[in-house]
Design goal:
Layout: E1 3-9, E2 14-17, H1 19-28, E3 34-40, E4 45-51, H2 55-68, H3 89-98, E5 102-108, E6 111-112, E7 118-124, E8 131-139
Organism: Mycoplana rhizolycopersici
Protein name: YjbQ family protein
Family: Belongs to the UPF0047 family.
Length: 140
């Protein structure tokens, strides 16, 4: 079964689209039908399928998750014990636990079956830049 890894350089918290890379991988492997499994190899970021037309959606998601899980130096987060790696680290792990680290997308007629406005995103939960690795696996 075809498999590859892609790297995404993040610049801090936010959504980073990689739909084009996933589509290119499927095209290169000329599979009419199958299942693309997408897996991120980290514990402080996650994966999302989300709207890719209006950038306000990404901004609103960022704002929502920041309000839901603020940095550990926020007074509401005094209960957090794991603070050694900075005030964004444990909240990043919580955000990743609330989202997915693996997504399956059906392939039909040689294409991902994403909807018209759907894109595939790495959701970075850390403040500083990171190099993130994603595994793409195409099963038959």
């Amino acid at each position: 079964m075809p498999q590859t890894r892609i790297s995404i350089q993040t610049r801090g918290q936010g959504l980073y689209e990689f739909t084009a890379e996933a589509e290119a991988f499927v095209r290169r492997n000329r599979r009419d039908e199958g299942l693309l499994t997408v897996f991120v190899r980290h514990t402080s970021c996650s994966l999302l399928i989300q709207e890719n037309a209006d950038p306000d959606v990404r901004r609103d998601l960022d704002a929502f998750f920041h309000r839901l899980v603020p940095p550990s130096d926020d007074p509401s987060m005094r209960w957090i014990v794991h603070t050694m790696e900075g005030p964004d680290d444990m909240p990043a792990h919580i955000k990743a636990a609330l989202n997915q680290v693996s997504i399956g997308i059906p392939v039909s007629e040689g294409r991902l079956t994403l909807g018209t406005w759907q894109g595939l995103y790495l959701f970075e939960h850390r403040d500083r830049p990171h190099l993130r690795e994603i595994v793409l696996h195409l099963g038959g």
